[in-house]
Each structure stands twice: as structure tokens, then as C-alpha cells.
Amino acid sequence: MTVTAVSGLIDAISYLGLGHVFTANMTGNVVIIGFAAAGVPGFSVLGSLVSLAAFLVGAGIAGRLETVMRRRTSPCWLRWILMLEAALLATATTVAFVASHAVHVLIALIALAMGLRNGTVRKLAVPDVTTTVLTLTLTGLASDSTLAGGTNPRAGRRLASVLAMLAGALGGALLVQHAGLGWPLLVSTFGTAAAVLAVPRSSSSR
């Protein structure tokens, strides 16, 4: 759940502090490109395209790494990916503190990290573990609920994901408004580092 909270934090940083661009939620970027193309003020086609491109590169790298690390255990693989994500976020944090005007560099670094993580989560294919998009999670909560005739499978995990992202977005919004970009990015870096430490050191196979 830590990385899900980081996603909420990251999108608060990018949307509120980097010109209404998403770096974790790519659905939002596609919609924003449509808004900007229609001439709606306050949205950036370039920023969203940079984010999409960097995200796709990150996801592609994750797919390539899967072929290299497929014989390793899932915890080992995930730990390495989260370490790479933390390194990218740490770089973005440094840029934010020393050159906060380098908006597109920040967008690229953060979206690259998110693409790397999302590509890995997809390859690991853990049920109901989605770290950046909650549409399917919320759909599952409703359509599999008792009221809908379901049995509420993994309802706790799904609800925890929603609450984690909400908490991350709330904290990110407060930090961006009152502390700028550097400090919330630093928090996201430490959050990812904490997730690295939380990955179990299991020797079980994938």
C-alpha cells in the first residue's frame, strides 16, 4: 500500500505543481491532451506527451528486465525495481531543489519511474494490486459486493488501495501548496525506499 500512497502523492505533485500533467495516471494524460488540443486553457500538450513518452519507456524497460530477471524470485525482482524507482525520484528531488523551473525534466524523471513500476506490477500480476489507477479497483468493490450478489473477494485489499491513494493525494496537495515541489518529492523518495525495505526477503519462486 505504500507505493499506492506514493502514486497519490506523485500525481498531486505533477498535477498541481507541474502544469496540470499526470505522471502516474496515464488515463488522465490522454484526456488532458484532448482538452489541450481543443484549446482549453491551463493544459499542456507538450507536458502530457513528455509524461506519456517517459512512462512508456519505463514500462518498456520493465518488460525487458522481466526477461533478464525472470529466474529470480518475485521479492528480489520487485526490490530491484523499487530501488531504481527510488533513485529516479531522488534525482527528481535534487532537480526540484536546484532547478525547479526544469518542469519537463521533472515530468520525464517521475513518469519514467512510474512506468517502470507499473510495467513490473503488471508482469507480477498480483490480483487487485494496482498502484496507480483505481478504476478497476472501485469497479470490483461495487460489482463484487454483497449488494450486487457477490462475495466481496479481496474487499479489504481493494479498500486499502483506495484509502492509500487518497491519503497520498491529500498529503501531496498540502505539501505542494505549502512547501513547493522539493519536499513532497523527497517524501515520495523516502516512501519508495520504505517500500524496498518492506519487500519480504523470501526465497520462494515467482
Structural notes for this entry:
By secondary structure, the protein is an all-alpha fold. It contains 8 helices and no strands. The chain has helices spanning 2-17, 26-37, 45-69, 74-98, 103-124, 135-143, 155-179, 182-198. The longest helix is centred in the N-terminal third of the chain and has 25 residues, at 45-69. It is globular. It starts with a helix and ends in an 8-residue tail after the last helix. The model has no long low-confidence stretch (mean pLDDT 88).
SSE blueprint:
Blueprint: H1 2-17, H2 26-37, H3 45-69, H4 74-98, H5 103-124, H6 135-143, H7 155-179, H8 182-198
Helix pairs in contact: 1-7, 1-8, 2-3, 3-5, 4-5, 4-8, 6-7
Report the count of strand segments: 0
CATH architectural label = Up-down Bundle
The amount of beta strand, in percent, is: under 5%
Order of helices and strands: HHHHHHHH
Query: Mind telling me the CATH class?
Result: Mainly Alpha
Could you tell me the CATH topology label.
Growth Hormone, Chain: A
Q: In terms of per-residue confidence, which ranges show pLDDT below 50 for 5 or more consecutive residues? A: none
Separation of the first and last Cα atoms:
20 Å
Q: Percent helix among the residues?
A: over 70%
Number of domains: 1
Q: Average pLDDT, to the nearest integer? A: 88
Q: Please summarize the sheet with the most strands.
A: none
| CA radius of gyration | 17 Å
Helix and strand composition category:
mainly alpha
Basic shape:
globular
